Amino acid sequence: MNYLGLKKLDIYIIKKFLGTFFFAILLIVSIAVVFDFTEKIDDFMESNAPFKAIVFDYYLNFIPYFAVLFSSMFIFISVVFFTSRMAYNTEIIAILSSGVSFKRLLFPYFLSAIVIATFSFLLNNYIIPKANKTRFEFEEVYYHNKPVRYSDKNVHKQVRPGMYIYMETYRVTSKTGYNFTIEKFKGNTLISKLIAKRIRWDEEKATWTAYDYYIRDFDGDNEKLTFGYSVDTTIYIYPDDFTQRDNVVETMSLKKLNDFIDIQKMQGSTNIAQLLIEKHKRIAFPFSAFILTLIGVSVSSRKVRGGIGGHIAYGLGIVFGYIIFLQFSTQYAVKGTLSPFLAAWLPNLVFSIIAYFLYKMAPK
Fold first, then answer.
1. 10 Å Cβ neighbour count for 59?
2. Which has more confidence, 334 or 281?
3. Could you tell me if 159 and 117 lie in one domain?
4. Which pairs with CB-CB distance under 8 Å and at least 24 residues apart come from 15-22?
5. Does residue 303 register a pLDDT over 80?
6. Residues 174 and 323 placed together within one structural domain of the fold
7. Do 127 and 194 fall into the same domain?
8. Residue 263 within any structural domain of the chain
9. Structure pTM?
10. Is the confidence at residue 139, as pLDDT, over 60?
11. What is the per-residue pLDDT for 239?
């Protein structure tokens, strides 16, 4: 029996894999929602959060985030669960005895992994960022999780090529910076410098106004001085940039994240490593679906003492090892010991080697 080029065995395994995977996600996410709601119900009632906002703005956007976060564990449990049952019902032996090679047996597993990896990539880079933005906005209004200050002392940034700003202090509440300087360069030559005692964001004009300022314009050996009480100026930075969350990157699509990284590099930000780690993890993480699928099939395709429980216990140790390895490599990248690219891909590389050896040991 063929269906879209797939044999009956392929369709059987794909249905088992994807069915078990999505059922496991539904079950675990439902439990997580219940526990989360139980923990936060007092805060929701205290802040008079509307029921509609709780359901649609918070939990509807909480579900995809939580599902992708633990998808690697769900993949492994799903593979081990139904493959172990096939092994203990001697279905694996019957399939291999019929002339189907173990490599051919892996084909429907990897087709399923492609579906999951594709969903994971699309969710992580395009859907979840929008969902996180709505969820964070809900938390700011109805839950005790406010934005944090991004920077308020010695703000020194390159806001555009050849344009640098400096503020000695910045107050988030009044949107005011003190001892402000903006320098403009043409190549390595300073062509203009504005110095002001303070600079404040004007809500009506949507621009910054500098007070008690003077401007020095340079033209070769000539210098022009301009004094004044107030002047509007464009510095390509906004009040929201000083009140960003630590996890603001979780609200950005892959394209916006790349643009944000370019801006932060230009401004001389100190959190470039964390941003690059986030970028590379979004690309590397979906590939773990193939690695954990291969490990799961290799581990659970033979009978072992302890039955299905033994397979799951043995395999979960490998999954937790993968997660811990990823956390350790991330921390080393933040400290500058590893490159962000290597930190994101090293767990995949190491566990690919483990998967290969387990595959070689699997029944053929």
1. 18
2. 281
3. no
4. 16/82, 17/78, 17/79, 17/82, 17/108, 17/109, 17/112, 18/112, 18/115, 18/116, 20/78, 20/81, 20/82, 21/74, 21/75, 21/78, 21/112, 21/116
5. no
6. no
7. no
8. no
9. 0.77
10. yes
11. 84
